[in-house]
Specification:
Oligomer: single chain
Helix content: over 70%
Radius of gyration: 21 Å
Strand content: under 5%
Order of helices and strands: HHHHHHHHHHHHHHHHHHHH
Shape: globular
Low-confidence stretches: 1-5, 448-481
Largest sheet: none
Mean pLDDT: 79
């Protein structure tokens, strides 16, 4: 294979790896009712087919990225996608719901292996100043996969049954594995490095797993209840131990150069806040359309199509804006659009017009695509190639915890009246506005690869970025799980 073809092959592997996870998440939602009837499962068991995946993937993303930095991202992508496909085939053969839950958790483990690798391959194949276009293509592909998932799932479940939605992952996974073997990044992979701190990795995975489990339980238990408070308290205690361990460790699980990078931490915060706002708003608006306005699921889905369309179309435009105006201005503009979009949805009354919702969803989709492309480019592009995996894992973690947090906020505010819905959406809009703070400290222009990380200590002394400690496609898809 010639050198010029390598970046395109890496982009194809990255997009395909991201899309299989995106499709899996949205297709599952359509298959769950049929799965429940066929296996005689309870509602709680069906919830665990999603929660088990979420806990596993969120807990292991950063560790998986670190493994990729040490052992090679192609190897992690190959292993992850084969395991993901094998677990999916196992679910298709599962005799009981218990097997489905266990295999979904295993699928989460392998999903955690492959997701950071798909981003790291782009960082290895493209220089930082050319990352905008491939990341925009990847974002558009994820939006297409997420939007097509329910349609594809509906066709498969209707004509072939729920098991078919898991069978289709197996041949696709084999194709992606073949792509992973064929990729030859222009920049050599690290393939070696300091040993991974197993104690720190365990503490990090435990803290993230507890946080995600606590947040997924908020819709059922509420915020100010013993189960939620106990779990969040336990997560805080484990996180405290992790910080103490990281300060003493010779090779912390999150390298100090990455932790001190303002562009990386600011981008992660922006992704966390924005995804929380987006998916919290989608959760609340869906209930508004179906319970207050009386629309069916199909009509509710069609109402949100302008958002998907603008995500697909907006990602390339965001890539162009990023090259022309730089990360700071582009991120601020995207955040303002997200705030405006959610605020527009809050004005939909009992007889809310389709025109108003169409405009609001379109603005929200354009803003989210802009934030995604800009923040992802900053996270991946401003980290040295040797840490591409760990920053990819951090980015995917924010993209998993953010939606879970947003749904917890939307479901935990109480009340389903139009007034309560409007109040919740305004709260989420205010949450999105907090993203203007990290957006404002992003670089005004893209620097050379790794420059921001190398100078992170000096910049951090003058600018402090508060990272929030906190799940529907790779990026956006996992929250739908």
């Amino acid at each position: 294979m010639t050198a010029p073809a390598r970046p395109h092959l890496a982009l194809l592997a990255s997009v395909a790896g991201a899309m299989i996870v995106a499709l899996d998440g949205t297709v599952l939602l359509v298959a769950q009712p049929s799965l429940q009837r066929d296996l005689g499962a309870s509602v709680a068991q069906i919830q665990w087919t999603s929660t088990g995946y979420l806990v596993a993937v969120a807990a292991l993303l950063v560790v998986a990225g670190r493994l990729g930095d040490r052992y090679g991202h192609r190897r992690l992508l190959f292993t992850g996608v084969l395991g993901f496909g094998a677990a999916s085939a196992g679910i298709a053969l599962a005799p009981t719901v218990g097997w489905v839950i266990g295999l979904r958790a295993a699928q989460g483990v392998f999903g955690a292996l492959l997701q950071p690798a798909t981003l790291a391959l782009l960082r290895l194949a493209y220089p930082a100043d050319r990352l905008g276009t491939p990341i925009a293509i990847r974002t558009s592909a994820i939006a297409v996969a997420a939007g097509a998932g329910p349609v594809l799932g509906g066709i498969l479940v209707t004509h072939l049954g729920w098991r078919s939605v898991f069978w289709i992952n197996a041949p696709v996974a084999l194709l992606i594995a073949a792509l992973a073997l064929a990729v030859r990044p222009a920049t050599p992979e690290r393939g070696a490095g300091p040993r991974i701190d197993l104690v720190g990795a365990t503490l990090l995975a435990t803290a993230l797993a507890i946080v995600v489990h606590a947040l997924t339980g908020v819709p059922e238990h509420g915020w100010a209840t013993a189960p939620t408070l106990l779990e969040l308290g336990a997560a805080l205690a484990v996180a405290t131990l992790l910080v103490a361990r990281e300060r003493r460790a010779a090779h912390p699980i999150v390298p100090r150069a990455v932790a001190r990078s303002v562009p990386v931490t600011a981008s992660l915060t922006l992704l966390l806040v924005t995804t929380a706002c987006l998916f919290g708003a989608l959760f609340r608006v869906t209930f508004h359309f179906q319970e207050t306005l009386g629309h069916d699921a199909l009509a509710s889905g069609l109402a949100a199509l302008p958002m998907t369309a603008l995500m697909v179309l907006g990602a390339p435009a965001a890539g162009a804006a990023l090259r022309r105006h730089g990360p700071r201005r582009t991120a601020i503009a995207g955040t303002v659009l997200v705030v405006a979009g959610v605020a527009g949805l809050s004005r939909l009354g009992p007889a809310g017009s389709w025109t108003a919702s169409t405009v609001a969803f379109a603005v929200l989709g354009a803003g989210f695509a802009t934030v995604m492309v800009t923040a992802t480019g900053s996270v991946v592009g401003d980290a040295p190639a040797g840490y591409a995996g760990v920053v990819g894992g951090l980015k995917q973690t924010a993209m998993n915890i953010g939606p879970t947090l947003g749904i917890a906020v939307a479901a935990g505010t109480g009340g389903s009246s139009p007034a309560a819905t409007s109040s919740t959406l305004l709260t989420l809009s205010a949450l999105a506005a907090l993203g203007l703070l990290p957006a404002s400290v992003l670089p005004s222009r893209r620097g050379t690869p790794g420059t921001a990380v190398a100078s992170g200590t000096a910049v951090a002394s003058s600018r402090t970025v508060a990272l929030g400690a906190a799940v529907v496609p790779d990026d956006a898809q996992d929250c739908a799980r």
